[in-house]
Amino acid sequence: MRRVTQTVLKNDLLLRALLREATPRTPVWIMRQAGRYLPEYRETRARAGSFIQLMSTPELACEVTLQPVNRFPLDAAILFSDILTIPAAMGLGLHFVEGEGPAFERPVRDAAAVAKLAMPDPETELRYVLDAVRLIRRELAGRVPLIGFAGSPWTLACYMVEGGASKEFALVKGLLYREPATLHKLLDLLARSVALYLNAQIAAGAQAVMLFDTWGGVLTGQAYKEFSLSYMSAVIAELQREYEGRRVPVILFTKGGGPWLEAMTDSGADALGVDWTQDLSDARRRVGDKVALQGNLDPAALYAPPERIREEVKKVLDSYGHGPGHIFNLGHGVQIGTKPESVAAMVAAVHELSPAYHK
User: What is the pTM of this model?
Assistant: First the structure.
């Protein structure tokens, strides 16, 4: 296995904040910071010919990963990839439908289909992701840390059973209530696959990793703990937590997961992502000093003029309050119609205003 050459990290604010260590200001990065709102991304995407070609070509994935870091003074780069790389490597026929998003040619909807699945080898079927990680680390040259990521087992299962995106999740929820043992078998396989995949990203050079539980919020409280959180906890328990001489922090983000923050703090994660529907001061009170918090500006706030964006940034900083353990981010991914100038205004406001909260 090829390993990344160790370089001195010039900006480690993110890694320190994720571990609730003191920082001179609040670090900032944004979910989906590399994407269609950037003209340079659209140019690279057109050159690639397709999204799958873009994410599966290490040189192009590296180029896109670096674009927002080159444009804005962000405190982290996040690997440009997709949460569905694991089910794609399982041979389900991933493709993207214009205007509709990802779809699978061979959905997984019964015990027989689950039994046919095998855990992908990251260094073979997912080698293109790891090559991208290694290349990005080399090109970053220690400027900022690199975040690796994966979809949560439950979120991956949602796409695999539904066959694509869904509004009602009737198929996967039907399986949950009709054949829970079958769904548990699928989730167990996915948890082991995700842990293997994230450990491979860490070995390739990812300095923090994040679990995206996009659809955990569609579950009842009891079902969330049984079918989503328990498997994310299993993933985290298997992760390599130290590499290159320092802690590898883990961020757990469940969209709509506000009701279960207390349970999430026991997952083993170092930080919890908080979506824009939650008050950060309330979240901080509930989790105490167990974990750091990441978030949580409403992505739609970036449609406002710069002076209003600055006001909204201050509200988020005020809500978290003074002291360590806050990573400024959006409450979900940056939206397509966002102007780059608006992102620049948000980042500038965090740089200007946040030092006062760390004195």
Answer: 0.96
DSSP category for residue 279 = -
Taking CB atoms within 8 Å and a gap of at least 24, the contacts of 229-232 are 229/254, 229/260, 229/263, 229/264, 229/267, 231/152, 231/153, 231/154, 231/187, 231/188, 231/190, 231/191, 232/152, 232/153, 232/154, 232/191, 232/267, 232/269
23: alpha, beta or left, given left = phi > 0 and alpha = psi -120 to 50?
beta
| Closest C-alpha to 327, from 289, 278, 274, 276 | 274
What is the biggest distance separating any 2 CA atoms in the chain, rounded to whole angstroms?
A: 59
Mean pLDDT for back-to-back runs of 10 residues, the chain (359 residues): 66 98 98 96 96 96 98 98 96 84 94 97 97 98 98 98 94 98 98 98 98 97 98 98 94 97 97 97 97 98 98 98 98 96 98 97
CATH 3.20.20.80, applies to 13-358: no
Residues noted as catalytic: 32, 36, 45, 82, 159
Paired strand residues for 330? 297
